[in-house]
Amino acid sequence: MKLHREGKKIIRNSFFIVALLAFALLFIGPHIWWYQVPISIAAIVFYILIVRFFRVPNREFIFKDGHVISPADGKIVIVQEVFEDEYIKEKCLQISVFMSPYNVHINWFPFKGKVRYYKYHPGKYLVAWHPKSSLLNERTSVCIENENKQLVMLRQIAGAVARRIVCYAEAGQEVNQNDEVGFIKFGSRVDVYLPISAKPLVSVDQKVVGGRTVLAKF
Predict the structure, then answer these.
(1) Dist CA 116 CA 190 (whole Å)
(2) Could you say which of 2.30.40.10, 3.40.30.10, 2.70.70.10, 2.30.29.30 is the CATH number of the domain covering 67-217?
(3) Is 14 a catalytic residue?
(4) Cα separation of 150 and 127, whole Å?
(5) Cα angle at 133 between 128 and 137, to 5 degrees?
(6) Which of 22, 35, 111, 208 could form a disulfide with 213 if both were Cys (CB 3.0 to 4.6 A apart)?
(7) Could you say which DSSP state residue 161 is in?
(8) What is the pTM of this model?
(9) Domain spans of the chain?
């Protein structure tokens, strides 16, 4: 299994913690199986989950001009019209993907274009489905312009578990569909704000696959 570079330090530190715990259980203190075995199993499961969080999926991405591909794995939690007031400053179609701790946590650019705006916002760590999480939580905002001069805002949002957002976008950068835009450690949410004229092709509660599921058509 290929692992993402963002997880190398955490995986290494987790391994040392689990190894020290195993050493302590085996060689220090009373050898009582009824607490040694459950703790050892829990530690191993914890380490396996940490490694799994940072897996890089082996998948074939799809490329479709004029379409918006899902930037993340997860479940659709919002499809609605809203006013985007940070950069686009007009009514947009918002589509939000909730990423559980079991999903792949890499995020991808949903279409080919040019990054016109990037900003990191420090903030709170409300649960990702909280109505105000997109405004109050730690987040990054990336605005991309497509070949038809249409603007789309991509927002990575931290949640109650996710405490670290990584974003590789830079203003002025040319990007291709399915290039990596960043990584949200331990899950959360990605919001996409599309032109109001865009046609949504997904619905609430639908499961989506990053780089493969079409969210909307321009």
Answers:
(1) 18
(2) 2.70.70.10
(3) no
(4) 31
(5) 100
(6) 208
(7) S
(8) 0.84
(9) 5-53, 67-217
Question: Amino acid identity, residue 90?
Answer: E
Token pair 């009514």 is at which residue?
A: 91
113 exposure class (CB count in 10 Å sphere: 0-12, 13-18, 19+): buried
42 CB contacts (<8 Å, ≥6 apart)? none
Task: Give me 106's structure tokens.
Answer: 């890499």
Choose, from 14, 40, 188, 203, the residue flagged as catalytic.
188
φ/ψ of residue 8, rounded to 5: -60, -45
The residue type of 122 is: P
Q: How far is CA 134 from CA 84, 101, 127, 198, in A?
A: 11, 19, 10, 21
Q: How far is CA 51 from CA 22, 98, 105, 158, 193, in A?
A: 18, 20, 12, 20, 32
Residues 9-56 have pLDDT tens digits of 888 888 888 888 777 776 766 666 667 778 778 888 888 888 888 889
Six-digit token string for 67: 């379409």
The amino acid that residue 185 corresponds to is K
